[in-house]
Design goal:
Elements: H1 15-18, E1 22-25, E2 29-33, H2 34-39, E3 45-51, E4 56-61, E5 71-72, E6 81-85, H3 87-97, E7 105-108, E8 110-112, E9 117-121, H4 127-137
Antiparallel strand pairs: 1-2, 1-7, 2-6, 3-4, 3-5, 4-9, 8-9
Length: 138
């Protein structure tokens, strides 16, 4: 009888306990939980991007580009969340998408490992609303 195949794993033993990575969009800010911050590598500064054709918000580590505005990030963590104030952008986002961000909407973050970008397709129904729809349909 042959032995089991040996595979190499890199388990993160806190992964499940720390929860899924989320970005919350509220009337005044974008907020990121600790798992989302960790996906980016806990950077001190980030840049925010927006694809207005696909309605996707992207965030990546700042790479010292002189022509791009960066935002302080990891050092601003409070209660396991980082908040970036951007009221005017959220107003624009609401106008473009027809989505009201009061109350705040929580989105599950996606990660592009090649580009090292976390992103959120804003037009996808936020996770909390999907849960409510499922609960109401039973």
């Amino acid at each position: 009888m042959k032995g089991a195949c040996c595979m190499t794993f890199n388990f993160d033993w806190n992964y499940i306990a720390s929860g899924a990575p989320y970005m919350t969009i509220s009337e005044y800010a974008l907020s990121f939980n600790a798992p989302a911050v960790s996906l980016l590598g806990n950077p001190e500064e980030v840049v925010l991007g927006f694809d207005d054709k696909q309605m996707v918000i992207g965030v990546r580590q700042y790479q010292n580009e002189p022509d791009i505005k960066s935002f302080k990030f990891y050092s601003r963590m409070k209660n396991s969340w980082v908040r970036i104030g951007c009221k005017d952008f959220v107003k624009y986002l609401s106008q473009q998408t027809g989505i009201e961000f009061s109350p705040a909407k929580r989105y599950l973050v996606q990660f592009d490992a090649d580009e090292k970008v976390i992103f959120v397709p804003v037009l996808e129904v936020p996770n909390d609303e999907k849960d409510e729809e499922v609960a109401e349909s039973h």
